[in-house]
Design goal:
- The chain is of the alpha/beta class.
- It is built from 27 helices and 15 strands.
- It has three domains: 57-201 and 271-310, no CATH class; 231-259 and 320-414 and 606-619, Rossmann fold (3-Layer(aba) Sandwich), CATH 3.40.50; 418-599, 3-Layer(aba) Sandwich (Rossmann fold).
- Helix 23 (546-557) links the parallel strand 14 (533-536) and strand 15 (561-562).
- It is globular.
- It starts with a strand and ends with a helix.
- The relative contact order is 0.10.
């Protein structure tokens, strides 16, 4: 009789090909993600009894709301504890709000991630109480997976090895009676077991496609940025703004143009984890916290293993480099760095003590995602942005009523795009979900894979004349490499490569029709360009606000939005030769304009609008 083996990740060594393999989730299906392993183990896979789990607990919207509320309440409790401990370790007397700025984007995601893994295990064994299970494990060293910073942690969260560690910790903590663990030898040749496992080029923001022009701009910016930072009263950092208008703003308000890249984009090259024993001190301080909540107890026992070095060992060195820039009162506009750049976060926490204002601006947007009790802005980060920002600039013109929100025109480069010509391509724009969950919001991996398979069938059923013009553009290959799969079906010439040298505006200019598969920024940009655009989504994956739902219904009525691939296929096949008969119809254009007014409202005098707001920020 075959034994039951629980497989928790995609690590091949944890499988038992002669036994029953119960997969905890779609992320375990290594043959879906790794082509080399797929070929090597093809025959074994065909002969193996695999019991798949084709659902995820957050596909239940009621459970999302319940879990979101649970985590939200615990986050404030955790922040209180961790703030106190970090202040003690670093010998400072900083407030909870200081540490909120520094650690909360990491803490929010870390808590969500660990809770997701906890729930996967809990639910599996709740459903399988009577069966006996085994699970293979490989001994990995926690020290090899201590992240350098926030971005390194996100990289870890998508690694089979790190998730294997997390599940193994959970198995030991939960002491599941019908589960036995079996130690296995690690036979993989290509695993990187060094602490600095993040690709160094990624850390230094380098890539093969980094153009010569961009390199020259970067060198010039490095020369002037320090002087510009000290001189300028207003700082635009990690900010999209059309170049011509940005230079006009700088001239009007006597600012030296700069990206400030060398001020915030640096690495601390210190690998001594035992320095001052900060990690051990952190562990000991957290061990004294008493709680009856088992999940929080598990979290507190493991925080010291996963907290980035930028908050512990490297914190003082980062602060020392940042401090000279933090002492003068500034107004800082930014879009990205407060989420992912730990150096910038420490700067904001420090400069707020000098009276500086932080104004956070949306870097994208589309039909508003909304579940009851979620914050209006960026729900995946809870209410972080509302709590750390002095103002939030939002594109959504439908729901933000709090005083903190300001509705201004989007400033993406697309708003200056002149699109007078008609392209030839039928462009399909897709986004892969991540392999392992990191947020409450978004499409789950199982649904994403199923949706992609439907998309392939849809593309295959388009008329030959349209198929010959198809171009597939994936926002990123986060998990199952949709780009490679599409090229295997339709040829390499069908791929529209996403890169800094091939921005989305090129896709727009080369397109006769744009098919978008998610209701976010690229859909807004395509609609704004007035290139014929279609949105095809599974609406069960997107919980819209009332205004967004109403807008979606109007788009659907006018054949701009679809929930069914066959309906979309029939519409495209019918109008491909004369798209203007549909697209330039008065009702269709009215629906398009209504969408833009609500969710991507670029006003005719947008430059003056922004200029006036900057003026009021300076003199308020």
């Amino acid at each position: 009789m075959k034994k039951n083996f629980l497989v928790s990740t995609g690590l091949i060594d944890t499988w038992e090909f002669e036994e029953n393999n119960f997969l905890l989730g779609r992320w375990c299906e290594f043959y879906e993600f790794d082509d080399l392993e797929k070929k090597k183990f093809k025959e074994k896979i065909l002969m193996t009894n695999i019991i798949k789990n084709n659902s995820h607990h957050w596909e239940d919207n009621e459970k999302i709301i319940k879990d979101y509320e649970y985590i939200k309440k615990r986050l404030e409790y955790l922040l209180e504890i961790i703030s106190e401990k970090l202040s003690a370790i670093h010998n400072v007397n900083e407030s909870k709000e200081y540490w909120r700025i520094v650690i909360c984007t990491w803490l929010n995601l870390y808590t969500t991630i660990i809770f997701d893994r906890w729930e996967n295990i809990r639910i599996f064994f709740e459903k399988n109480k009577t069966e006996k299970f085994y699970s293979n494990f490989i001994l990995l060293d926690d020290l090899d997976y201590i992240p350098i910073n926030f971005n390194d942690f996100i990289d870890n969260s998508q690694k089979d090895e790190w998730n294997h560690l997390i599940f193994l910790r959970l198995f030991h903590f939960l002491t599941i009676p019908n589960l036995s663990l079996i130690k296995k030898k690690d036979t993989r040749d290509d695993i990187k077991k060094k602490i600095n496992h993040t690709d160094i080029r990624k850390q230094l923001n380098l890539s093969e496609s980094f153009s010569l022009v961009n390199r020259v701009i970067s060198i010039i910016d490095n020369i002037i940025s320090r002087f510009a930072f000290k001189f300028n009263k207003i700082i635009f950092e990690s900010f999209y703004f059309p170049k011509k208008e940005y230079l006009k703003i700088c001239l009007k308000y006597k600012l030296i143009p700069s990206k400030y890249s060398n001020i915030f984009d640096f690495n601390i090259n210190e690998n001594n984890l035992s320095q001052d024993n900060k990690r051990i001190k952190f562990k000991n301080l957290l061990s004294k916290v008493d709680t009856q909540d088992r999940f929080i107890k598990f979290l507190l026992q493991n925080l010291h293993k996963d907290i980035p070095r930028s908050y512990l060992e490297n914190f003082d060195a980062i602060k020392k480099k940042i401090l000279p820039f933090s002492k003068k009162k500034k107004i800082i506009f930014s879009m990205h760095s407060i989420t992912a750049n730990d150096n910038f976060k420490i700067f904001i926490a420090e400069t707020k003590k000098a009276g500086s204002k932080y104004i956070h601006a949306a870097h994208g947007g589309g039909l508003t995602f909304r579940i009851p009790s979620y914050p209006l802005f960026a729900p995946g980060h809870f209410d972080f942005f509302e709590k750390v920002s002095d103002k939030i600039i939002s594109w959504d013109n439908t729901e933000q009523e709090q005083n903190i929100f300001v509705n201004l025109s989007p400033t993406l480069p697309i708003i200056n795009l002149k699109n007078d010509k008609i392209g030839n391509n039928c462009s399909i724009v897709f986004v892969e979900t991540k392999k392992y969950e990191i947020k409450f919001s978004g499409i789950r991996l199982n649904r994403s894979i199923n949706y992609f398979n439907e998309l392939i069938q849809f593309a295959n059923n388009l008329d030959p004349a349209i198929k010959s013009k198809m171009k597939f553009r994936s926002k990123a290959n986060h998990s199952y490499n949709s780009e490679k799969r599409f090229s295997e079906m339709f040829g390499e010439e069908s791929i529209d490569k996403n890169s800094s040298n091939n921005p989305f505006k090129n896709t727009i200019l080369n397109s006769k029709l744009i098919i978008v598969t998610y209701p976010e920024t690229v859909f807004s940009e395509a609609m704004y360009s007035n290139t014929p655009t279609i949105l095809i989504i599974n609406k069960n994956c997107w919980q819209f606000s009332k205004a967004a739902q109403h807008t979606f219904n109007v788009l659907k009525k006018n054949k701009i939005a679809f929930e069914d691939f066959d309906e979309a296929k029939n519409h495209i096949n019918k109008y491909w030769k004369e798209l203007d008969l549909w697209w330039k119809n008065e009702n269709v254009q009215s629906a398009r304009k209504s969408y833009l007014v609500n969710f991507f409202n670029v006003k005719p005098d947008w430059y003056r609008e922004w200029s006036d707001y900057i003026h009021s920020s300076l003199f308020s």
